[in-house]
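Morning. Coffee machine broken again, so started the prediction first thing and wrote up yesterday's gels while waiting. Chain of 257 residues, entered below exactly as on the submission form.
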Amino acid sequence: MHKPIRKAILPVAGLGTRFLPATKTVPKEMLTVVDRPILQHVVDEAMAAGVEHFVFVTGRNKAVIEDHFDIAYELEDTLRKRGKTAELKMLLDYLPEPGNCSFTRQQAPLGLGHAIWCARELVGNEPFAVLLPDMVTLPGASKTQCLAQCVETYREHGGNVIAVEEVTPEETHQYGVVAVGRDFGRDFEITGMVEKPAKGTAPSNLIISGRYILQPEIFPLLEKVEKGAGGEIQLTDGMKALSDTQSFYGVRFDGRT
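Came back before lunch.
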C-alpha cells in the first residue's frame, strides 16, 4: 500500500516576465481564465486528485495569493446582507480547509529545483505532488484531469510519476525529454531524462509536463545538485539523481494543456 498524496507544492515565486506588461503589478498566477485566476484552476485540479494541503513557494509582491486563499470578511459580510447567497457560496466553496495552506519564500530566483527544495520542511517525509501554476489542464476522453491521472499511476506502481505530452521531434530541444522503457499503454517506465537535448538526439518526443508526484528522498539530492542552465538548480537534474535508486513512470495525459 503506497502512502497517499496529501500535499502539493505550487512554485509561485516567478516574476512572469513573459506576460509583461500584464504582470507588472499582478502576479502571473492571478491572471484570470474565464471567471477565476489561473492558480485557482490549478488548486481545483489538485483538490479533485485528493490533495489536502497546499504549499505555496512564493516571492516578494505575491501577498495577493495568500489573500486569495483566505476569508474576505468585508466582501462576505456585504454579500450576506444583500442576500447574494450564490456568490457567497462560490467564494466559500473554493477555500481549502483552515490550516491547509502553507506559504514559504524562495528568496532568490534559483530555479524550479530550488523552489521545491524550499518546501522540504513543510512537506516532511511523505510523497507529494508538484503542479506548475502557469499551466491549466483540460481533461480528455477519460474526463480525468492530469494530476488525477498521475495519482492513478502512482497508486498502481508507486515510485515517482511525471506527466508527459507529445511534441514534434523538431521541438524536443526546447524541453526536458524522457526515454521510454516498458510500456503499459497510458503509462510507462521512464529509463532516462535529458534536459533540452541537442537537435536530433532526443530519446523520444515525450516532454516533461507540469505535473509530478515525487518521493521525499529528492530533497537532499536537490540540495547537492549543481547549478545548471541559467545558473538555476534544475528539478530534472534532481529527478535524474533520484532515478538511480527509485523507479519513475510517465503518464501520457489524454487531455490538453
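The longest strand covers residues 187-195. Going to sketch it on the whiteboard this afternoon.
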